[in-house]
Amino acid sequence: MINTVFIPPNPKKIHKDMPKCNLHTHLEGSVRPETFLALADKQKVKLPFNKNQILDFIQVSGVEKTLVDYLNKIMINYQVLKDYQALKQVAYEAAEDAHKDGVIYIELRAGPLTHSHDDLSIEACIEAMLDGLQEAQTKFGIITGLILSGLRNHETNKNIILAKIAKKYQDKGVVGFDLAGDEVGYSAELHQEAFTIIRDSDLGITVHAGEAAGYENVQYAINNLNASRIGHGVKSIESKSTMELIKERKILLEICPTSNIHTGTVESIESHPVKEFFDSGIEISIGDDDPITSRTKVSNELTLLLNTFGFSNNELLKIQLSSVDHSFLKDDLIKHQLKEKIQEFEQFF
Ligand SMILES: [Zn+2]
Fold it and tell me: Quick check: 25 and 288 in contact, CB under 8 A?
């Protein structure tokens, strides 16, 4: 397996036990290759490739140019995410992998409409993932939440149904609602009504915007969809008024640097505006987006910040505190405990 190519050979290291939060990571990009193969075997899925070629098919190879190319890699995983047990296992393993990377709080997101079918309801998909997360939480102590992603290419009415179902699970582990998928091909306007339903709930709202398309989408997500967090939002850097809006409304940008290279959002890692966002006072979190697809994890992304962008360890801790502040957790006591764990680390720097 190729490691992330964006970290120099002898990097400065983040403290190995630094408590980390991951607010932006997708279940569909978190399927371990060995789990994919085992599930395909069990479900008798005919694969269009040899087992030993699997990494070429589910991970970035460097030829991907756009978000759609990247999404096509992730979609290969859909083939095995078709039953309760599979969804539970993958959710569990995503949280387990995060825990091993020192993540103490994870908001895993997934699009249940992609996995439901005649014999597996949307509710069953959600419950499977919640069960997997709960099991990991009990076993490893990692705090977990589930964000439901409506996909841009899904019918308006389907995302409205998903939003209504999401509300039913707001006290059962679902913490937020998201819009994901092909940002260039499908306008967020198509799904405004789903977000109006969520606005009237305890669920947090985050929207993928300003990733494959322009800053206008960031403005739309904030002004019309009531987003308090933006997935990526990288293109906001091109607009002073968008940057001001983000600051004024105290919106958090969920930044995933390596993924932004793989989707062509930025041309090179050096040109990523993550430090400019941070230095301008915009709050950010650092996620891995699709850790298996992008061959990364949160500790890699933070190492990248330390080495390529000149962040200090203290600033990385500040990012973790921002992440807790902007998390969709409703329990203030847990928030407080997470922040205490992070603050204990200030003594090391
Ligand atoms: Zn994403």
Answer: yes
Measured distance CA(179)–CA(81) in Å, rounded: 20
| 4 assigned to some structural domain | no
> How does strand 103-110 pair with strand 20-26?
parallel
For residue 118, how many other CB atoms are within 10 A of its CB?
5
Which candidate in 127, 211, 283, 301 is catalytic?
A: 211
What tokens were used for 331?
Answer: 């329990």
Distance, in Å, from the CA atom of 346 to the CA atom of 18, rounded to the nearest integer, reads: 10
Question: How many angstroms is it from 349 CA to the middle of ligand 1?
Answer: 31
- 255 in a structural domain: yes
Cβ-based neighbour number of residue 249 at 10 Å: 11
pLDDT tens per residue across span 71-128? 888 888 999 999 999 999 999 999 999 999 999 999 999 999 999 999 999 999 999 9
Q: How far is the CA of 309 from the centre of ligand 1 (A)?
A: 22
Q: Does residue 7 sit within a domain?
A: no
Residue appearing with tokens 């709960």? 134
Whether residue 196 lies inside any domain: the answer is yes
Residue 183 is among the residues annotated as catalytic for this protein: no
State the distance from the centre of ligand 1 to the C-alpha of 260, rounded, in angstroms: 10
Give residue 1's pLDDT.
Answer: 35
- Give the list of residues 6+ apart from residue 219 with CB closer than 8 angstroms, or none: 239, 241, 242, 245
Range of the domain at 233: 20-348
The CATH number given to whatever domain includes residue 333 is 3.20.20.140
Q: What is the pLDDT of residues 50-80, one digit of tens each?
A: 888 888 888 887 777 788 888 888 888 999 9
Alpha-carbon distance 349 to 347, whole Å? 6
Percent of the chain with pLDDT over 90: 80
Q: Please give the tally of structural domains in the chain.
A: 1
